[in-house]
Amino acid sequence: MIQGRPVGELLREWRHRRGLSQLDLAIQAQVSARHVSFVETGRTIPSSAMVLRLAEHLGVPLRERNRLLVAAGHAPVVRERPLEDPHLMPARDALEQVLRGHEPYPALAVDRRWNLLFANAAIDVFLDGVDASLLRPPVNMMRLGLHPDGFARRVNNLGQVRGHLLPRLARQAAQSGDPELHALYDELRSYGPEGDPPPPDPAGIALPIRIEHRGAELCFINTVTTFGAAFDITLEEIAVEAYFPADEDTARFFRSRAPATAG
């Protein structure tokens, strides 16, 4: 989003992004289609309540809702504080507890641009042998996974992984309108073969990730958790990725390391 653009133009862009007509949005938000049209064309300046109402039905992220409010001449209503803020200490502690509780298996927390925030001790299996330049903060986990000098060279099913991650990143970039995510997508796409990666298997529940690690193949599936009732922009944008062993050999490998990774 570019600062200074009128609120109607921004709302129209979000409506197009969601594939809705003015009538669709009007029905969902229980307002007239004429009112939606007037807001989008600038004939009506919406109240803060109307901005938030339309944003809610458009699924606009909290960060962008603040920008819509400012564009309409209103004050932002959703707070954004750094994780170091004392008020977010309980949330930060809860995050770290979740990651520690997942040991001996890897788990990590990332921000909206896939930059690493926290990780548990078992994450070392992904960092082993990675080029030092990719470990300088902020460490981007998408880049780390698909860059030729990251752990991509140790992924035995890299084509499948690219086919899963790149469409996911493209959707996130399109839904958020974040230019940095678009740039990250273009960068990561350039690391692979020409053309689009093969699409993921629609019948697959979870994609296995197979990584060579010191002579052994470790196989994972992963889950992604977000804060559905976040009250702060920073918290809404955090995702927790937890990796589970996909076979008994991988589970045995991590159980054998449990004393070294605990705590």
TrEMBL record:
UniProt cross-references to Pfam families, sorted A to Z: HTH_31, MLTR_LBD
Listed name of the protein: Transcriptional regulator
Lineage, top ranks: Bacteria, Bacillati, Actinomycetota, Actinomycetes, Streptosporangiales
HTH cro/C1-type domain span: 11-65
GO MF term set: DNA binding
Region forming the signal peptide: none
